[in-house]
Prior knowledge:
By secondary structure, the chain is an alpha/beta fold. The protein has helices spanning 8-19, 34-39, 46-55, 61-73, 89-99, 104-118, 140-151, 167-170, 183-191, 218-221, 224-227, 258-261, 274-291, 304-311, 317-334, and strands at 40-42, 79-81, 130-133, 155-159, 197-201, 230-231, 238-239, 245-250, 265-268.
Amino acid sequence: MYAHKPNRHFRNLIQQRLLAPQSLPVDNQPEVEPDWDDSLIKVFDVDSMQDMIDKHPSRSNLARNHSRYLEYLGDTEGYLQQAVVPDDIFAQLDQLAHDFPNFQEVVAFYREQLALMVYSGTQVFAATPLLLTGPAGVGKTAFCHRLAQIIQTHFALISFSSMSAGFVLVGMSSNWAEGKPGKVVEALAIGHYANPLMVLDEIDKADGDPRYDPLGSLYQLLESETAAHFIDEGLEVPADCSHIVWVATANDLQRIPEPIVSRFVVIPIKAPNPEQMRSVLASIYRQVRKKHRWGVRFTEQLSEQLVAKITTSEMAPRLIQRELIRACGRASLRHKDNPDNIQLQTDDFYIQNPWMEKEQRPIGFVY
């Protein structure tokens, strides 16, 4: 998601790096352009990957894995660019704080982290691993999506709610029939960014056989020194994963091992209060209109009566988004003969109690 775009400057830097003399003494090395180190990271050793292909039968899992990943990497020679923050990053963070008012502390965290990069002369996207805790549906994943959109880096979401083994992250040995690389190196190779935003969703729900602990690889991946030489079991060669920007989410902090928690900055997220919900609702509705082709047929603003109904309902933002889409469908049926500039009515939106399965629907309404 938010995949790479063709970058001619990036390609030129790779060619310059590859053509630069390597045999001169250090004192006689030509001066390297400052933005080389900031822009390019050698994440994959393509020579070692090609050696794996040459040394193993073409039909072996290991040779196939490396062939596929070299195709992913294309002409990058294993060097991946780093996403840099836009010049107006702080203004965009202000807007992010407005749209997610219950994430004020999180926005402040990223403002501090990115200030270190911007004011030091580099604008590389980098941050300490962050763990967001709080009830389900308050917008943790949606916030991460928006942050990745602002930075324009690759976004990868890995759900732990159904994960029972660590090979999803670190790969499965090529000795197994289904042996293949894991989600971490896959995000790097496909996304073409050395610093993607990788979200570990609901890590407190990881479960399974202790011998294949889904969280076990995080001890290495969350430490930059060891992540720089991470070996995926499906490739068996090191890859530099030290520039990944990590965010994890959890509902219950007590279910996560303390050594894992200690590797994160932990920020609790509360459900937005009614006043904050007005900003959240405006952002949700704006995204609904923007995401769907039919969104332009609806008015830019919700009526004050509908805003009041939703903001006092105590519904989670995730449920509000879902019910807004359904409300748009109901309104479309009502305006099928004149489907333009549709204004949602209060009766279009059904309040769903977040703790109960049944909705408050008009009597006689049947799905």
